Amino acid sequence: MTEPVAISETERLISSDKVEGTRVYNRQGERLGTIRNFMVNKQSGRVEYAVLEFGGILGIGNEYYPLPWELLTYDAKQAGYCVDLDKTRLEGAPRYRDRDPLWDEIYGQQVYGYYGVTYPLF
Amino acid sequence: MTEPVAISETERLISSDKVEGTRVYNRQGERLGTIRNFMVNKQSGRVEYAVLEFGGILGIGNEYYPLPWELLTYDAKQAGYCVDLDKTRLEGAPRYRDRDPLWDEIYGQQVYGYYGVTYPLF
């Protein structure tokens, strides 16, 4: 099988499948989890949230934290995203466990509000 | 293992991993291929291209067509994307095989230009 040599990242762009599974660290270098997936606005093509997966063993007890895309900065040295977020701040953050939230605008405003990021017009 | 019941799509949003692997049809109902991945602008969080994978057997001879996100409309009946694109038009379209293109703005303008879509400011 010949797979193309994928340029999964340039200075400007990143491939969707490279984002998924990428580790997330905070500025203290603590590992917060990995990006499970991200939600794209169908109309505008803008990413509305990335979903950070955290905790649990073998998928049991995992928790999912929607994060505004703006929070994520890729750090080549750590080969992961670096987020300005300490663990106590994450502990109080909007999250879900067994079932995805409804992803409506009210939820969006809650999430962005928690992180002090202006909820964009998608 | 307990995986959450993922709402992979709402009226507004679609999950990244649902986009990948989705079949693409044209208006004549012909299958054009599947979405392999898509490229996101790291800064703005906007999707710049979806990559349509087409042809080949077991990965040999596949070709990859970058498409402006705006071209894709999800059609629940076909459980796939519907694109206004006949096969002859696709045959002349920008594509790559063994190696991803450089994904710079010149390339972006070529791709968007081919499909008659204004290249947005990302």
From TrEMBL, chains A, B:
**Pfam families, from UniProt?**
PRC (PF05239)
**What highest taxon heads this organism's lineage?**
Bacteria
Q: Where is the PRC-barrel domain?
A: 14-87
InterPro entries listed in its UniProt record: PRC-brl_dom (IPR027275), PRC_barrel-like_sf (IPR011033)
Name of the protein in question: Sporulation protein YlmC with PRC-barrel domain
